[in-house]
Write a structure and sequence with these properties.
Elements (H helix, E strand, L loop, with lengths): L6 E3 L6 H17 L2 E5 L5 H15 L3 H5 L10 E3 L16 E7 L6 H5 L21 H26 L17 E7 L13 E4 L5 E6 L6 E4 L5 E3 L7 E5 L1 H6 L9 E3 L10 E8 L27 H14 L1
Parallel strand pairs: 1-2
Antiparallel strand pairs: 2-10, 3-4, 4-5, 5-12, 6-11, 7-10, 7-12, 8-9, 8-11
Helix pairs in contact: 1-5, 2-5
Length: 322
C-alpha cells in the first residue's frame, strides 16, 4: 500500500477519549515516518495570515535594506542563498532560498545568553530585528507565543502516545531555546544547476518542528523508510509537524527524525514560496539520552551522559566547520 502523510484533526482534544485517539495517531505517524499534518489546532487563521503577510513584506525589501539585517558573528538575521539547515552533501550547489530567523532567547542580555552553553549553540546569538515592516517584530512575537503554546500541547499528546504521563516531558522544556524562521524560495526564472534544490535534504535538530507552508505549489517532501520521497500535502489552514533529532533520540529510535527537502517547482511554474517553521527545542540542560521508560533501540552510537545543549553545539560545530 502506498504510504501517505497522515492528516490528524485535533478538534476533539478536549475530551479524554479524543486525546487518547489523537495520541495514538501521533504515535503511529511518528513511528512510521516522523511527519504528519494537523488541522483543528486552534491557532487563529487571522494571526497566521498577518504573520505570512509581514513575512512576505520582509522578503520584498530592497537588497540594501536586507543587508542591514544580514546575519553576522554573534547575531542572527537574514541568510541569503544558503540556509542554516544545509544539505548534508557539501558538494551540491547552495539552496535556492533566503532565511530569516530569531531565537526566543535572542533578546536577552549577552551575559544571560552565555549561560545557555558555548559559542556554538545557535540559541546564544542575539536577534537582529528589522525596522521594516514596522509591525514585523510585534506580529512575530505574537506568533511565537502561539507556536509555543501549541507545541507544548503537542508534546503533551506525544507523551501520552508514548505511554507516559502527559506532563512527563515538561521539565525538558522548562527553559526551552526555540526559534522561529521563515524561508523564502526564489521564483525560478532560470533552470537550477544540476543537483540544486530549493532546500537540500536534511533533518532537524529540534525536538519538534511546526511548519506553516504555502497552499499553492507545495514542494516539501519527506523520505520514507523505503527511501522513497513522499509529498507532504499543503492543506489550507494546517500545520506540518515533524519529529526532530532530539525527540527521536529521547524515544530511543521508536520515532523517526526523517530526512526532508523542498524540490523545485515543475518547469514553467515560476512562483516564489514561503514557509514558516517553528523549531520547538528543549532546555539546553535537558538530558539527551533516551527516556529510561522507553529503552534504547536506536542504531546510532550517540554519546551518553550529555545534555541537549552540548549535543546541539557539537552538531553545529560539525556543520559549520565541515
Amino acid at each position: 500500500m502506498e504510504q501517505v502523510i497522515p492528516v490528524i484533526d485535533l478538534s476533539n482534544r478536549d475530551t479524554a477519549d479524543g486525546r487518547r485517539s489523537i495520541a495514538a495517531a501521533f504515535d503511529r505517524a511518528c513511528s512510521d515516518g516522523g511527519f504528519f499534518v494537523i488541522i483543528g489546532h486552534g491557532v487563529p487563521q487571522e494571526l497566521i495570515d498577518r504573520t505570512y503577510a509581514t513575512t512576505a513584506a520582509l522578503f520584498a525589501l530592497s537588497d540594501e535594506e536586507k543587508d542591514a539585517i544580514a546575519a553576522r558573528p554573534g547575531f542572527g538575521g537574514l541568510f541569503r542563498s544558503t540556509t542554516a539547515a544545509r544539505t548534508r552533501d557539501n558538494d551540491t550547489p547552495p539552496d535556492l532560498a533566503e532565511l530569516f530567523g530569531v531565537h526566543v532567547k535572542g533578546d536577552l542580555p549577552e551575559a544571560e545568553r552565555a549561560e545557555l552553553g558555548d559559542e556554538w549553540l545557535p540559541a546564544r546569538v542575539a536577534n537582529l530585528w528589522p525596522t521594516k515592516p514596522a509591525e514585523f517584530r510585534g506580529i512575530w512575537n505574537e506568533y511565537i507565543d502561539a507556536m509555543t503554546a501549541l507545541s507544548a500541547e503537542l508534546v503533551h499528546l506525544m507523551a501520552l502516545g508514548l505511554g507516559l504521563n502527559e506532563d512527563y516531558l515538561d521539565d525538558r522544556f522548562a527553559n526551552h531555546m526555540s526559534s522561529l524562521s521563515a524561508n523564502y524560495y526564489y521564483p525560478q526564472i532560470e533552470a537550477p544547476l544540476p543537483g540544486q534544490l530549493r532546500r537540500g535534504a536534511h533533518s532537524d535538530f529540534s525536538a519538534v518542528t511546526v511548519l506553516y507552508q504555502d497552499n499553492d505549489i507545495g514542494g516539501l517532501q519527506v523520505q520514507a523508510r523505503t527511501g522513497e520521497w513522499l509529498p507532504v500535502p499543503a492543506v489550507p489552514g494546517s500545520f506540518v509537524v515533524n519529529i526532530g533529532d532530539v525527540m527521536a533520540r529521547w524515544t530511543g529510535g521508536r520515532w523517526i527524525s526523517a530526512m526532508h527537502r523542498v524540490v523545485n517547482p515543475v518547469q514553467g511554474h515560476r512562483s516564489s514560496r514561503i514557509s514558516i517553521p517553528f523549531f520547538y527545542q528543549a532546555d539546553p540542560a535537558a538530558p539527551f539520552e533516551p527516556i529510561p521508560l522507553l529503552g534504547d533501540s536506536a542504531e546510532e552510537n550517540e554519546p551518553a551522559d550529555i545534555t541537549v545543549g552540548e549535543w546541539i553545539s557539537r552538531k553545529s560545530r560539525a556543520f559549520i566547520t565541515a
